[in-house]
Structures
1.
Amino acid sequence: MSDYIAPLQDIRFALNELAGLARIAELPGCEEATPEMVDAILDEAAKISAGVLAPINKSGDAEGCKLEPGFHVRTPAGCKEAYRQFIEGGWNGLNFPQEFGGQGLPKLVATPVMEMAMAANLGLSLCSLLTGGAIEALLRYGTDAQKQTYLPNMIAGTWSGTMNLTEPQAGSDLSLIRSRAQPEGEHHRIYGQKIFITHGEHDMVDNIIHLVLARTPDAPEGVKGISLFVVPKFLVNADGSLGRRNDVRCVSLEHKLGIHTSPTAVLAYGDEEGAIGYLVGAENRGLEYMFVMMNEARFAVGLQGVAIADRAYQHAVAYAKERIQGKDLANPAGKSVSIIHHPDIRRMLMSMRALTESTRAVAYVTGAAIDRAHGEPDPAAREAARAFADFMIPIHKGWATEAGVEVANLGIQVHGGMGFVEETGAAQYLRDARITTIYEGTTGIQANDLIGRKTAREGGKTAKAIIAQMQGLLEQLAAAPGGDMQAIRSALAEAVAAFESCVDWIVANFRSDTLAVHAGAVPFLKLAGIVCGGWQMARAALIAQQQLAAGGADAAFCSAKIATTRFYADTFLAQAAGLRHTVMCTGAGAMALTEQQF
Amino acid sequence: MTVLVIAEHDGALLKSATLNTISAAAKLGGDIHVLVAGAGCGAAAAAAAQVAGVAKVLLADAAHYQDQGAENLAALVLAQAGAYTHLLLPATSFGKNIAPRVAAKLDVAQISDIVSVEAADTFVRPIYAGNALATVKSSDGVKVITVRSTAFEAAGQGGSAPVEAIAAGPDLGLSRLVGRELTKSARPELAAAKIVVSGGRGMGSAENYSKFLDPIADKLNAALGASRAAVDAGYAPNDYQVGQTGKIVAPQLYLAIGISGAIQHLAGMKDAKVIVAINKDPDAPIFQVADYGLIGDLFQLVPQLTAELG
Amino acid sequence: MRVLVAVKRVVDYNVKVRVKADGTGVDLANVKMSMNPFDEIACEEAVRLKEAGVATEVVAVSCGVTACQETLRSAMALGADRGILVESEAELQPLAVAKLLQAVVNKEAPQLVLLGKQAIDDDSNQVGQMLASLMGWPQATFASKVVIAGDKASVTREIDGGLETLELKLPAVVTSDLRLNEPRYAALPSIMKAKKKPLAVIKPSDLGVDVSPRLSTLKVAEPPKRSAGVRVPDVKQLVDKLRNEAKVLP
């Protein structure tokens, strides 16, 4: 029943107070991102998300995409029009270079715009997300001619993009890719089957630009023999007009648990004469390019966790205020009350709220770091930002998506039996959220990245730098008045200590006891997420308290921020000590059985 | 203190909102005069003379009042205004069109849509789509007021006021009526009907709207209304819209059929004496204001109800 | 032809306003503000007139606090060419706004003034008519269709009971109703361009207008609440209740 209303107040708070939009606007090339400009952009993005994308979220879920004769994919009613409105508004090109028709705004400004679109309609928003990934790949590794040929239409959104990695035998392990690329003059002929291709075929755009991983004839085995190709659905003539259909077709659509508005295609390349593809960058370096792209994509998927959590939270709050059931425990003789009066419903709603706000804060702070990693004029500052962003991305992706699933799950619980019934819409959020912990690297893959490349390999350097920042905040918290702030400080202090000892343990045991360390990887990622979320929430609470003291601020918002942080401290930061134990000890049991005993 | 009510009429009869406006004028105390301006509108003036409480009727009969254009009527009212402490018009598309023009020329505030008279200079009016009621006091010498008709009873019959012809004002020639398309209906006027049958998006189509609602409206001698969603979807004409931006109604009985009850709609009908809601969605907000709620498929329930009223 | 559009900054229509406990008004602290939806429709109409080649310039005007600049930027993001803010911290009632607009109209000499039929905060429905009156211009309120041909405007109005079409001599004032058009979403590039469009700020005193209020608000109260009644199981019981309990049916 409830419509999506963009949480602009919390978004602005996270942008301005936590992520430091003002600093980003000082970076070279980001000058347009002034607070007034960003305000106006957020207002309009909120409007179009709520007014255009959100209304077809439920109907699109129910209808789904259909593969029709002629390898044609029909998206649900209204998607084409809504997508058109979105791209005609120029939203697709928000953070891409002006030279190719984008607006050249920083990632940090794109972040809330993406969040709102995702919350409004996760399935539909995927089209732009994948196009964005393909745009980034071509921007970085494409030739000038490739950029000129593809980027203006992709940035405008009239062409969309895809990422073709997975094959039936090559999922998380891409070294098993078998698709072939046969050189033929200026181009290659591509043969093979790709699966799980998001928006691999659909009717919302004029052309689809596939980025495809394949092996050239003499390529080495494994990950070092994979090249990246651009394969347009329709070949592009020299004058930019669309030429003949390429030999790539959608042979099947997956039947999925969620994101029904987004067609997930099985694409067959080269069933006839071979699909014409053009090499992007250098031969055999495709996977390396894809990993650069994947960092951006992982950031975006983490944001999906924030978005779906917010949508599920809004839905649950509306229901809890409406649904009359049972007496108020404080007044058993009175009339029946709405369920939001009941303590367990409160606990669930506060959990949902705290996870939504904390994952958002971490996301935006990470987004700002990505901008600074590109734009800080001082190389040392740039490098520090890069290290921070690299460390945070697996945490953000893994933790925010797991939180998104948890929040959507709680959302159903708040609805009771009505949540299990599709009609209320609460179930869709859980179904849609479920993929986010899987694609662009499962939570397990994120955790392995976090303990390996991001922690052990550098001896915990970035982790320690972050812990030092957290300790600085603890000192500030110690000086802040009030019982809430002291409770927050003490919970955060214990959680930071738990986190630090886990970092030390991972660094010390990564090689010597690698199975045990990897068994504890996901619990460690969860611990890292909870601690980073608590760090940002505590910063938020401190700022809210200062704003309250200064006067003029929205007292209801500020006091809610402090209360939500307090709840977060007692509910989530309090889990840190237990997680520390799990990180260090879970390996013993996890690896104890023989394969036959399962 | 003398009050001038500017009558809305169709040449022969007074519109019911004029009678409510006269009641509001009566609350002020003092004499009530009614201005009837039109072309060949003697019958309407005679009707005004018979309304209880009216002391005098002013009749301005001239061809250029035929169309009831705001520019010419405002000029006429202005010429009379000097003799009055209050100028009252119904808060209808007729009154809202004229009153501000008069007020601006008199250099006084206009008080819109009053729902209560607290004193000769103090009135209550809804703001924020009826989510708040403001009590306002005017410091101006002349009060120009529009009256929400649903907030005042219609004045009764029994008067015998003299009708005095007055000179017409100038024809300003600023605008010309090209045509009117009035919704033809034998049903009572929506804003004044005792019973209103209103359909929402749940009707599903224009065909269903008339197929299911016409028979019950006929049976009850009710006016037909619609939610904004139903009007926007083309199920019912624009002037059927009940709500903050449409008609404000306060009938004895309001039947909301397939209407979810957006705040905007509730603002237009929440003063009905009895509200009945028929909707398949048990969580529809309309049930929060309905005196009687019936949950179920309207396509089954409405014909049953029509039959039951037999 | 120049078209002037008057836009008001009001509480966003999604916000559920709360009456202050002390009865002095509604609580507007930290509440989201937006352009009055009817004014947005007026602005869209003006921009369409420009896109159709009928209007040559669209000038947006707002009267009120400094933050009304945002509202003017929104109007410019929709397509208005420039903005004028008549800046005043004082409460501006409809008569004062009409006089301010009159002064601006005298300077700018538009052939058409478009504005919303009413603002969703005070629900007055006055400014357009007052401005037309002060200028001695014709008016068409509650417009659902506007056609400009030469020095005439043909305007279809939503009136009680149906529609009527007026032909007005220009210059004229037209106030928009809901169904005049559906305003576009501002495009991102337009939002960014809007920041660079000219915006002039003037004071009521520059225009020689006295804006002192004529109405004082003594009290603002919540309307009486209607509470949910009963659910009836079937049509038979409903009719029985309507006849014998509510006594609204014979």
2.
Amino acid sequence: MSHLTDDRLFELGVDPDAPASAAERAHLEACPTCAARLAAERELTLALTADAWRIEPPADFVARTSARFQAARAELAVAPTAAAAKRSLRPLSWALAASAAFAVAAVGLLAANLGEIVPHLVILAKDVMVVVAALALAASKVPLGPLFVAASAATVLLAWSMAMSRLVNLSDREINQPAAA
Amino acid sequence: MTHSSPDALDERDLARRAALGEEAAFAEIVRRHQGAVYRLCLRFLGPADAEDAAQEAFVKAFTHRGQLDPERPVLPWLLTVARNLAIDRVRRHQSSPTEPAVEDADAHADTRAPSAEHAAISAQRAARLRRELAELPDGQREAVMLFHVEGLAYKDIATALEVPVGTVMTWLHRARGRLRKALESAEELAP
């Protein structure tokens, strides 16, 4: 029989009750290399399972840990309320801020020149609604919520730039009109 | 409402009751597993911080008791919580996680009365073994200690250390190889 493998020596070495086959026993009796290696494995196991490694915690460990449980329980009774309030307020403030910003922009545009930019304002208003809906989705933790926000924000930026470009054209016309007259 | 004595309960019942928030059940879990959790913290942090860290680990486990799965052994889960907490503390203190802690643990161990088994190992060889253990990478050292000292199965060690079972076996083989050589070299140096 050839030498015992590392894995087999490990198995026999870590478990003193692991049964060696008759062939393995015969080999171990005849092979000093394998016998020495197995003896070293078993000695190491003995050293590592010695009581000296089993250091116990202080005697009052359980009592002191239980006291900390009660403190943690008291904290838990308070913490969820505050956390829930924070959770419910944060998305709302985001949605409010976004809505307010777009409302101000829309009113500004409307005041600048209602008649000329009405078609663009309609587009902008539609996109604002999309953004608000997307923010609501994000706040409700729908997995694709942030994607909706990004896509909607891009659409609104486009509508915004179109509206601004229209305003610039109108202003140019107002400047040029007296000269032409 | 009446409950049978915690001692009469098997671990699964205990875990189920603890998961539902029964403090007495969780206290029984602490009683059963305090040693393993404390020793793990001791290896990472040394005696000064080990007790506080072990208690914090139990409190953290208690506050996250909803994650406790009564169908699985409790100890590997507790050890995962304790190990992550100990590693966080080591990082926070920016100190080496192994050498001083294990050396301190050894000093702690040396104050205790030696068992018959321990007495059989020469002081020089035991010291060499401790030094070599302290020099092992965390994973290898923990695999060895959880296997030999705590008596955990490969699967439970893998859960505790958050690695595949194959990695645990590799770590054990490598670590034992190094430790065996350390013992052999200590023997050669011995008078």
